[in-house]
Amino acid sequence: MSTAPDHRRMSRHEYLAFERASETKHEFLENEVFAMAGASRRHALVLGNLFASLHGQLRDRKCEVYPNDMRVRVSSTGLYTYPDVVIACDDPKFEDKEVDTLLTPTVLIEVLSDSTKNYDRGDKWKHYRQIQSLQHYLLVAQDAMEIEQYSRQDDGNWLYSDHRPDHDVVIQSVGCRLKWDEVYARVEFEAPKSEQPK
């Protein structure tokens, strides 16, 4: 999904009231609202596949998995955003009694698109790694079979792994495995330009 400035400025409480009444989703940072655009077919397929796989694996565990409608707040920086897939474990904490803004994600997953991949790898990741409960951050490509993973180590540092489809991707903190044929089921990739018929 892509974001664009909405040119509206408001307080955090005004944003939450506005967002809860809105039919579209918006990110919020430093009193500024950012509209979120819709997703492509491939993006939606990958997101749905990820959610289905993780939901099945976590059904009997003390974790909840949410698709991209669960708002997450990075408490230390003030960012409100909607990750593509969120896993929360062990009594998740929410901002208020509305229970629609999660404070304690364990795993965050973003499906990359051309318009947001730099943001997801850069500024958004700077925000996400401030979340004390976060153990894994995954970046899942939609135009190739590739998954990047950041995993929090015991010393607080993050280990980066660039996965290719020769083995399952393990999300250790929640005991889940992502199988490539499940993540990319029904996803069709464009042939490289050199291979396209003339």
Helix content: 10-25%
Helix run count: 5
Please write the string of helix (H) and strand (E) elements: EHEEHEEEEEEHHEEEEEH
Beta strands, count: 14
Mean pLDDT: 93
State the strand order across the main sheet: 4-7-9-10-11-12
Question: Mind describing the biggest β-sheet?
Answer: 6 strands, mixed
Per the principal axes of the C-alpha atoms, what is the gross shape? Answer: globular
Helix and strand content put the structural class at: alpha+beta
Distance between the termini: 32 Å
> Uncertain spans, ≥5 residues at pLDDT below 50?
none
Computed CA radius of gyration, to the nearest angstrom:
17 Å
Percentage beta strand: 25-35%
Protein described:
This protein has five helices and 14 strands. The protein is α+β, with helices and mostly antiparallel strands. A six-stranded mixed sheet has the order 4-7-9-10-11-12. A hairpin with a 6-residue loop joins strand 10 and strand 11. The chain is globular, with a radius of gyration of 17 Å. The chain starts with a strand and ends in a 15-residue tail after the last helix. The mean pLDDT is 93.
Give the structure's gist in a few sentences:
This protein has helices spanning 12-21, 41-58, 117-121, 123-128, 180-183; strands spanning 3-9, 26-29, 32-36, 63-66, 71-74, 79-81, 85-89, 101-102, 107-111, 136-140, 147-152, 158-163, 169-171, 176-178. It has 198 residues and is α+β, with helices and mostly antiparallel strands.
